[in-house]
Amino acid sequence: MAGTKLKLSGRYVGVLGCALVLYTVSCAPGALWQDSGLSQYRIWHNDIEGFSGLAISHPLFYILAIGAKYIPVGEFAHRVNIVCAIAAAVAVANVFLLVHLWLGKDFPAIVAALSLGVSHTFWAHASIIETYTLWAALFSAELIMLLQYARTRRISYLYWLGLLNGLAIAVHMLACIPLACYAVFLTLLLAKREIRTRDLLAAVLLWIVGALPYEYLIIKNIMQTGDVAGVLASAAFGVRWQGAVLNTSLSGGIAKGSFLFILFNFPTPNILLLFVGCFGLFRILPGPSFRNVLAGLVVLFFVFAFRYTVPDRYGFFIPFYCVASILTGAGAYVAVRHINRKAFSYLILFFSLLPVPVYAYAPSLAAKMQLDLGTRGDIPYRDDYKYFLQPWKTGYDGAERFAKQALEAVENNAVIYADSTTVAPLLYVQEVKGARPDVKIVSGTAKSKDAPRFDKTTIERLLQDGPIYVVSPKPGYCPAFVLDNYELVQAGLLWRVVGRETCGKTAM
Hints:
Elements: H1 2-26, H2 34-44, H3 59-69, H4 76-103, H5 106-117, H6 120-126, H7 132-152, H8 156-171, H9 176-191, H10 197-210, H11 212-225, H12 228-237, H13 242-245, H14 252-265, H15 271-280, H16 288-306, H17 318-338, H18 342-353, H19 355-369, H20 384-389, H21 398-409, E1 415-417, H22 423-431, E2 440-442, H23 459-465, E3 468-470, H24 480-485, E4 486-491, E5 494-499, H25 500-507
Parallel strand pairs: 1-2, 1-3
Antiparallel strand pairs: 3-5, 4-5
C-alpha cells in the first residue's frame, strides 16, 4: 500500500512538473491589458477589495499575489502573472490525481489532465493574471476530498471539503455552485445518520475559517456603510452584474457563442469521450454520492455559463471544463475497456494533444476568413486574432510597448484619458517603471496620483492648462462629452483633443 501511494505521489509530481514547465513558458512576462492589467494595478497598491463591488474582490487571490509581489526576483508583473501559472499546474495535477484515485488507472487520468491542461480558456488564463486557475486548483482539491470520503467514509475528508470550499469562496463566488451541491449532500448524510450534527457543524466552522478574507470585507463594508442589503448584494453580484448573474433568457446568439466556446476548447474527436463518460458515470464505482455530485456540477456549471451575458463570459466556462475533463477521462476509461487495443489508446492520446496545433493555426485561418471576434480591433501592438485565439503569451510585451511609446510622445503635464482596456499598462509604466510622473492618466476605473477630475465641467479648464489626449476615438471608449463637443486629431498612438474652432484654424 505504501509503495502504491509513493508511486502515485511520484506521478502527481511528474504531472505537476510538466504543467509547470508548460505554463511558465507560456506565461506573459509583463504588463497586460484590461482586467488582467487592473489586477496588476490592484496588487501594486496592495488592494484586496477592488473597485467593482465585493463579488469582484477575490481577496484570497490578491493576498497570495501581493505576497508574490514582494519576492525580489525578476519583473514585478511576471512574478504576479506566474501565480496563475502555478495555480493552473496544481489544478491539472489535481485532476490527474482525482481521476487516478477514482478509476485506478494512469491512462484515463492522463487524458483528463491533458483535456483540461490544453483547453483554450484554461490555458489562456494560466498565461495571464486572472483568478480562475487558483479557484480551479481549490475546486479540484474539493473533489478529491469528496471522492476520498465516498471511498473511505472518513469524516476528516468532509472537514477538508468544508475548509477548501471556504477558501474557494474567498477566491471567487463561483464556489457557491459546488457549495449548494455539498450542502444538499451533507444534509442527506445527516438525515440518513451517516454523519453526526457535530460533524456537520465542524465542517461549517472550517468553511467559515476558509472564507474569512471574504467575510472580513463584507463585515467591514457593513460597518462602514450600515447598508446590510446593499453590501450583501455587492457580495453576491458586484456593482452592476445582477441582471447577468440571474439572467434566464436565451437568444440564438448567446447559444451559438456558448457552443462555439466549448468546441474551441475541445477541438478534438475526444469531445465524444465526454458523452461516453456522462453515460458511463453511473456504472463506475465508488457509490452514488460522488457520482451524483459530479453529475449535478457538470449540469449546473454548464447552465450557469451557457446563459451568462457578460462580455467575458468565456472565462465562466472554466468550471464546466474542469468537470468535463474529468468526465472525458472517465469516457476514455470506458472506451478502452470496450476496445482494448494499444493503437486505440495511442489514438486517444494523440487526439488529446490535437488542440495545440489547432490553436497555432487558428489566428491565420481566422484572419483569412476575416472572422469577427467581437473585439474592438484598435489596440496598438495587439493582433486580436493571435492574442485571443492562441492561449500562450510567451514573450508578449505589446501592452508595455504601447504605454512607453504613448507616454514618451506627449508634452509635459499632459492629460491622457484611457479606457478600461488601456489604462492599466499606462499606469504600470508610470508607477512601476517610474516613467513620466508629470503626465496625468485618468479613466473611469483607475487614475494616476493627483490626477484631475475629467468631465464636461472641467475639460475646458484642463485644455487651458495643457494638452489632453484620448487613447481611442471610438464611442464607448472615449467620453461622449468629448466626442460631441471637440475634435480629435491623431497624434501617434493617441488622439489629441482640440476645440472645433482651433481645429478649423489649423486646417486653414
